UniProtKB/TrEMBL annotation:
<dbReference type="InterPro" id="IPR002932">
    <property type="entry name" value="Glu_synthdom"/>
</dbReference>
<dbReference type="InterPro" id="IPR013785">
    <property type="entry name" value="Aldolase_TIM"/>
</dbReference>
<dbReference type="Pfam" id="PF01645">
    <property type="entry name" value="Glu_synthase"/>
</dbReference>
<keyword id="KW-0560">Oxidoreductase</keyword>
<dbReference type="GO" id="GO:0016491">
    <property type="term" value="F:oxidoreductase activity"/>
</dbReference>
<dbReference type="InterPro" id="IPR024188">
    <property type="entry name" value="GltB"/>
</dbReference>
<protein>
    <submittedName>
        <fullName>FMN-binding glutamate synthase family protein</fullName>
        <ecNumber>1.4.-.-</ecNumber>
    </submittedName>
</protein>
<feature type="domain" description="Glutamate synthase">
    <location>
        <begin position="138"/>
        <end position="453"/>
    </location>
</feature>
<comment type="similarity">
    <text>Belongs to the glutamate synthase family.</text>
</comment>
């Protein structure tokens, strides 16, 4: 009797849905195929998950393939991250694939038996310009800019704890510093166009607020964000659904309203005034100051290098973000078609400074899918001194690439402000996983460096890597990106110094 009632209620419910489908005018599919048409929307909703686990091959899916995700997950858990039975790539026909050329003989190399071995930067950040708080970063791998707001407080906390355990730095992102960033890890404070945490009521920059914020926090450097790979030339957007009372308080903005950042800064308006701003921040805080940008037109970089060539003013570091980067939401045209991919963009920027002999005086940082060993090695060969990892760090703490970051419905609680979803993150265990991933990536870089016969990834050169150029043909990385002799390599003094540090 009870089952009959349940069946009747279900049938009534389905009949009501069918009736609604027949009279609604928004969806032609449902109007023509009531009830059955809903299956299409269900399949569309879970399409990424179906492709991720059932349909695609190991190296097919984007932005991260199954093999890439598997390596990150295994590394973060401290499990076996090897792959058996050889590669499943068509190695002779993969256009654009990079191949590292190992050396038969090598000098003294670092001991690879220590999983926590340090891999410091080959350059002292802020040293060439004599910043009061110049320092040598303890890790060539650090956590990229991801704001509290874009990520949940639990996710930011786990990443910060992981950074502390691994001895890396975490970039705050343009959302400013939050309590979740203060769990032991060193910070790079990012200043975006809205100056969150150091702004006046009208949204302009406030130096006193910046100095107050920096004075009581483990901030090691300041990064001025000009643009980012996800949406270059477009201001950031935090949907109102993510603007909680807590975030509103941290950012000094209205709660539950879309937070749209301007596309460009108001504290400066050209390269000349930007350098004045850089020097002001460095003088008032003592910290190294740099810029982050995706790469589009090159006039900006030419003028910056020309002005820095005079030796009076300059940035301490340059973070180049590839157009393939992005941890949050972006319009499709910006995600797909605005700004250059990392390798092309970085090589052009590096060349501008190399032509003027300035590369040893600047720390180059790369971001944009560089949290995978093969991509990172190519970046170091092109002249990068450190890399920032964003989505890969998210994967290490449980991201499943559901691609729902822009909806506030991230199923793993990482890219959401929904309390019930965020509670799924066990901060202590996820912090350990983040640390394990960061350490493993550093160790992989040392392994590849050793195969090339050098003790540090910054000593890998563009001639140590070939890029496949069609069937059975390859060109050196230097040739592909137009590098001249010596480009992508450290100067003799820096090379000797880092070699001595790692092989005393």
């Amino acid at each position: 009797m009870r089952a009959r009632r349940i069946g009747a209620a279900a049938a009534t419910g389905l009949a009501l849905v069918a009736a609604r489908d027949l009279v609604q005018k928004k969806h032609a599919l449902l109007r023509n195929f009531p009830l059955v048409g809903h299956a299409r929307y269900v399949l569309e909703t879970i399409g990424p998950e179906l492709r991720q686990y059932i349909v695609t091959s190991n190296d097919e899916e984007r932005p991260f393939s199954r093999d890439q995700r598997s390596w990150i997950y295994a590394s973060a858990k401290g499990e076996n991250n090897y792959f058996g039975f050889g590669t499943d790539n068509d190695v002779e026909h993969m256009q654009g694939h990079a191949y590292v050329k190992q050396r038969t003989f090598a000098g003294v190399l670092p001991d690879l038996s220590d999983p926590q071995a340090a891999v410091p930067s080959a350059k002292v950040l802020g040293g060439p310009r004599g910043r009061a708080k110049a320092f040598r970063p303890a890790s060539v791998v650090n956590i990229s800019a991801m704001s509290f707001g874009s990520l949940s407080g639990a996710a930011v906390t786990a990443l910060n704890k992981g950074a502390a355990m691994a001895g890396t730095m975490q970039n705050t992102g343009e959302g400013g510093m939050s309590p979740y960033h203060l769990n032991g890890g060193d910070l790079v404070l990012q200043i975006g166009t809205s100056y969150f945490g150091c702004r006046n009521e009208d949204g302009t920059f406030n130096l006193d607020k910046l100095k107050s914020m920096v004075a009581g926090a483990p901030v090691k450097a300041i990064e001025i964000k000009l643009s980012q790979g996800a949406k270059p030339g477009l201001g950031g957007m935090l949907p109102g659904v993510k603007v909680t009372d807590e975030i509103a308080g941290i950012r000094a903005i209205p709660a539950r309203k879309d937070c749209a950042s301007p596309a460009r800064h108001t504290a400066f308006h050209d390269v000349n005034s930007m350098l004045d701003f850089v020097e002001l921040l460095a003088m008032e805080t003592g910290l190294p100051v740099g810029i982050k940008s995706a790469v589009g037109e090159m006039d900006f970089w030419e003028e910056l290098a020309t002005l820095m060539g005079r030796g009076e003013r300059g940035v301490d570091f340059v973070t180049v973000d590839g157009g393939e980067g992005g941890t949050g939401a972006a319009p499709l045209v910006f995600a797909d078609s605005v700004s250059l991919p990392f390798r092309m963009g970085f090589s052009r920027v590096y060349g501008v400074f190399a032509e003027r002999g300035l590369t040893d005086d600047i720390t180059f940082i790369g971001s944009g899918k560089l949290g995978l060993p093969e991509n990172a090695v190519v970046a170091f060969a092109l002249g990068v001194d450190m890399i920032n990892v964003g989505r890969e760090a998210m994967l290490s703490i449980g991201c499943i690439q559901a691609q729902k970051c822009h909806t506030d419905k991230c199923p793993t609680g990482i890219a959401t402000q929904h309390p019930w979803l965020a509670r799924g993150i066990d901060v202590p265990s996820k912090g350990i996983r983040a640390a394990m991933y960061l350490r493993t990536l550093r160790r992989e870089l040392l392994k590849v460096s050793g195969a090339v016969g050098v003790p540090h990834p910054s000593l890998i050169t563009p001639t140590d890597i070939d890029i496949l150029n069609g069937d059975y043909d390859a060109r050196s990385l230097a040739s592909v990106y137009g590098y001249k002799d010596g480009w992508g390599s450290l100067g003799p003094e820096l090379a000797h110094e880092i070699t001595e540090l790692l092989t005393p």
